[in-house]
Amino acid sequence: MTEKSPLEKQRTKLAACAALIVLVILSICIGAGEFSLAGFFHDPDARQLFAVSRLPRTIAAVLTGAALAIAGLIMQALVRNRFVEPSTAGTAQSAALGILIMTLVFPAAPLAVKTLAASVLALAGTSLFMMTVHRLPPAQPYLVPLFALVYGGVIGAVVTFIGWQTDLLQFVGIWTNGEFSGVVRGRYELLWGIAIMAAIAWWVADRLTVLFLGRDASVGLGLSYQRTLQLGLVIVSVISALTVVIVGIVPFVGLVVPNLVSRILGDNLRATIPWVGLSGATLVLGCDVLGRVLRYPYEIPVATVMGVVGAALFLRLMFIRTAHG
User: Fold this and answer.
1) What is the pLDDT of residues 106-155, one digit of tens each?
2) Could you give the dihedral angle defined by the CA atoms of residues 249, 200, 131 and 212, in that order, rounded to the nearest 10 degrees?
3) Tens digit of each residue's pLDDT (9 = 90 or more) over 55-72
4) Coil, strand or helix at 185
5) Please, which residues have CB within 8 angstroms of residue 302's CB and are 6 or more apart in sequence?
6) 277 partner at 20 to 30 Å CA-CA among 29, 86, 108, 164?
7) Going from the N-terminus, what domains does the chain have, and what CATH number goes with each?
């Protein structure tokens, strides 16, 4: 794949912005309930549907896609490997385990308390993953994604086993298969927290970029490696926990989007984070709209659609040869 010229990069950015705008309009208009932009101004029912369901769902899809893509980018910087993301490295599965434990111990706990527990478990699971990954031979980078798949699978199996033993498999299915059909006003507002995490990620983007160089180079450049690593872990954990609590696990977003954007814009996180977020929002919102259209008026969960689309994009990435090999 040849290096894109500045004009081609600008066209790609404009196309991404236009695609997101079109998808936002489609997301608002498409659904089982009748709604039209023309009737919005004189039909109270249309305004009610817009405020209660269509707008919250669209915002939730945009926030989820953007945050998961940014979390994947940060995870890749922390591990220094392009083939990991929170949903394969045990972060999302650990968050689901935290929600399950809170459901068993404190079933009446508010959603914010369950989110806090999910964040703590996600942070613990991700920290254990990082401690183990750093012991793997650096000369064999493909061991990292393989270990990530095994590690995430083991935690997911533990969640499924506990859910089976406690007759909570239905809830486990909701947490592990992301979809937006249940997102309405009053149930998505916590997702604004991931927008705060994304803003913090952009604020420390230069430090995260240095992490790609490794521990020795980072310390040599005057970076507080351990604190930056801990901050990155917190950002990834909170984003994963919030998305699992509200939406569920959506695969491949944090894997394919950062790789696609970095091939076009490079590895400077301060420059790429906004476009990674925009691309992730476009991809997830597009998959959500596609899931509503394929079996209209029924819906296919966005995680199912994203699994197919993300797998195709990932295979495409694997077979594309970059200009530098």
Assistant:
1) 888 888 888 888 899 999 999 898 888 878 777 677 788 888 889 989 99
2) 110
3) 999 999 999 999 999 999
4) coil
5) 61, 178, 179, 180, 247, 250, 284, 287, 288, 291
6) 29
7) 6-86+175-319 (1.10.3470.10)
